[in-house]
TrEMBL record:
The protein, known as: Peroxidase
Lineage of producing organism: Eukaryota, Viridiplantae, Streptophyta, Embryophyta, Tracheophyta
GO MF, one example: lactoperoxidase activity
Gene3D superfamilies membership: 1.10.520.10, Peroxidase, domain 2 (1.10.420.10)
One biological process term in Gene Ontology: response to oxidative stress
Originating organism: Trapa incisa
Length: 329
């Protein structure tokens, strides 16, 4: 009996090891070479067209990828629409601020791919989102990089699954590190991915506590640059329209660059979770290094995005290729 137990446990450990390996082995560059060899250029052309219509394509797509991967893995489950019987991920309060242009980018790229007969229903929405994310980074001045492909689309999307899975604007370094570590991402990965705040915008409600009622002793967060705090108060008066949005990077908001880290050095991080990367001595050296070396930041960002893209990948019977990215087959 004892020997059978040992054999069973040994077999289970072999199986778990193989299944973990198979997930990473499934992802590879040129995954679609045999069925849809031009998929990357098809997606890039569709994304470029969308980008030319609106810059919101960039932060919208970037945030969509991040919010997707952190909840049930990179499986395009965030794109699923709610039904009368199921409230999907996209309708969780933490996802309501996702820009419609991000969803639209993936849907248009999917349509372009499926317009090619040999590619039709052969490329997953999850992979299209991963490619589109790489493309918007490059289109806005950031690094281009090889994307690993081979993800399947998820079979589940519930608002409840989002609870506690996404970083909040008020997080400190310990909370940020813990959340990212749960997905195999270290502190450097977290800081690099935070650098995506070099593009995009936020609604006033997400940071109003820092400019109006920070603490009993100070209405304004003392780590905020005073001039920047005054600018934010002017853009976000107390009874501001909740639809009003402010650029995350006040200096180069339409360029993917390392100015985000320079902003942190001068107290111009919009969220507490941004500024803490500089105020906390454990992360400050990384911020300083990337503020002075854009190539080093770009390398770190590519490495972190590649690791992020491997989170929770669906394989085999755990996923499929959706015909419509917003609806389960």
């Amino acid at each position: 009996m004892g020997r059978l137990c040992i054999i069973a446990l040994w077999s289970l450990s072999i199986y778990l090891g193989l299944s973990a390996t198979s997930v990473s082995a499934q992802l590879r560059q040129n995954y679609y070479a045999g069925v849809c060899p031009n998929v990357e250029s098809i997606v890039r052309n569709a994304v470029t067209q969308k980008f030319q219509q609106t810059f919101v394509t960039v932060p919208g797509t970037l945030r969509l990828f991040f919010h997707d991967c952190f909840v049930q893995g990179c499986d395009a489950s965030v794109i699923i629409q709610s039904t009368s019987s199921n409230q999907a991920e996209k309708d969780h309060p933490d996802n309501l601020s996702l820009a419609g242009d991000g969803f639209d980018t993936v849907i248009k790229a999917k349509a372009a791919v499926d317009a090619v007969p040999s590619c039709r229903n052969k490329v997953s929405c999850a992979d299209i989102l991963a490619m589109a994310t790489r493309d918007v980074v490059a289109l806005s001045g950031g690094p281009s990089y090889a994307v690993e492909l081979g993800r399947l689309d998820g079979l589940s999307s519930t608002a409840a699954s989002v609870n506690g899975k996404l970083p909040q604007p008020t997080f400190n370094l310990n909370q940020l590190n813990a959340l990212f570590a749960a997905h195999g991402l270290n502190q450097a990965d977290m800081i690099a991915l935070s650098g995506a705040h070099t593009v995009g915008f936020s609604h006033c409600s997400k940071f109003s506590n820092r400019i109006y009622n920070f603490s009993r002793t100070s209405s304004v967060d003392p780590t905020l640059n005073r001039n920047y705090a005054s600018q934010l108060q002017a853009m976000c008066p107390t009874n501001v329209d909740p639809r009003i949005a402010v650029n995350m990077d006040p200096n180069t908001p339409r360029t993917f660059d390392n100015v985000y880290f320079k902003n942190l050095q001068s107290g111009q991080g919009l969220f507490t979770s941004d500024q803490v990367l500089f105020t906390d001595g454990r992360s400050r050296p990384t911020v300083n290094a990337w503020a002075s070396d854009s190539a080093a930041f770009n390398r770190a960002f590519v490495a972190a995005m590649t690791k992020l893209g491997r989170v929770g990948v669906k394989t085999g019977s755990n996923g499929n290729i959706r015909r419509d990215c917003a609806v389960f087959n």
